[in-house]
């Protein structure tokens, strides 16, 4: 017995029934980005490992546990991209995109890879939109980016199901001071910590804030708070940002424990979350990274960006409306009951395709039993069914079945060609 192969764990197939919904979300987001004057950039899914280690941070979970690392034939270390910001910046620097103008508004889309424990909403290969805004360090840019996400949620009819969480990390120096005091605090309570949590204390104490442990959550109530360490300038810009969001009637909560999983962020960070997604509740996340371009070898250039997880958006849409991802994927299905009409069916299809691009012909020469073609059409999920049969074709007519309204019409073939919309009503 031959072996049955399965996809790699954590890598999932996107089947035709779901593709239609995915493409609708993709095209909606692309159109909004185009209207906001963002331009597409495409970078490789493989980069040198050192690029990610330098930018994301050696003490993050992504670098330590989640990277797909390889060696090429020349023994150089390369990695599948775990996120898109770093590759985007590398491409901008390498191709001198900041030479003429530091201000760049860019977007990209494609697969990202992280070796995480697969579960609902978390895959090892996942589809992600990334949006980056370079050249402006004002809180107005932060506001503009957040309002861009609001536009996307409104267009996708998801805004009422999402919650905006925001925070300010201050400067890297602010975070270092906070991290040191947080470490000192937890060193007094090491008895209840796991081995992994103890390791975080020596490598990246701030990551403890992300813990879901009830013991850690209880300790954090009396632990140092990040916003007490933020410098006055960062505090003022964050307050102004919150004022703008309030004036725009954007509902948000300030989450003092929101730190994001990457080391390069400063000042504003934000996440859009949904209670309908369980533990993997974040569908969009981003923040400001004013030092990263310079850190990767370019001239200093402030920036802010965000990423949207398309897989989680699809799961969210399904949880809201299970039928939203089960759209018809054929407008018209043409079936001939006698093989002599096979060529005619192709001719009719070619005449109608400019009006009905999603058009399918049943090319099987197998003779259908009476009314069996209707079962066939239901499996294909078509809006309309055109049936070619001798009894009608002999008088230049055709049977049109409206699957939606369960309504039948007999129409002259010539009228169908002259007006392809004739059988809609």
UniProtKB/TrEMBL annotation:
Localization of this protein: Cytoplasm
Which InterPro entries does the record associate with it?
aa-tRNA-synth_II, aa-tRNA-synth_II/BPL/LPL, His-tRNA-ligase, HisRS-like_core, HisRS/HisZ
* Domain of life where this protein originates: Bacteria
GO annotation, biological process: histidyl-tRNA aminoacylation
Q: Which segments constitute the Aminoacyl-transfer RNA synthetases class-II family profile domain?
A: 1-316
Q: Name one GO molecular function term.
A: histidine-tRNA ligase activity
Sorted alphabetically, which PANTHER family does this protein's record hold? HISTIDINE--TRNA LIGASE, MITOCHONDRIAL-RELATED (PTHR43707:SF1), HISTIDYL-TRNA SYNTHETASE (PTHR43707)
Q: Tell me its family.
A: Belongs to the class-II aminoacyl-tRNA synthetase family.
Know the name of this protein? Histidine--tRNA ligase
Q: What is the lineage of its organism?
A: Bacteria, Pseudomonadati, Pseudomonadota, Gammaproteobacteria, Enterobacterales
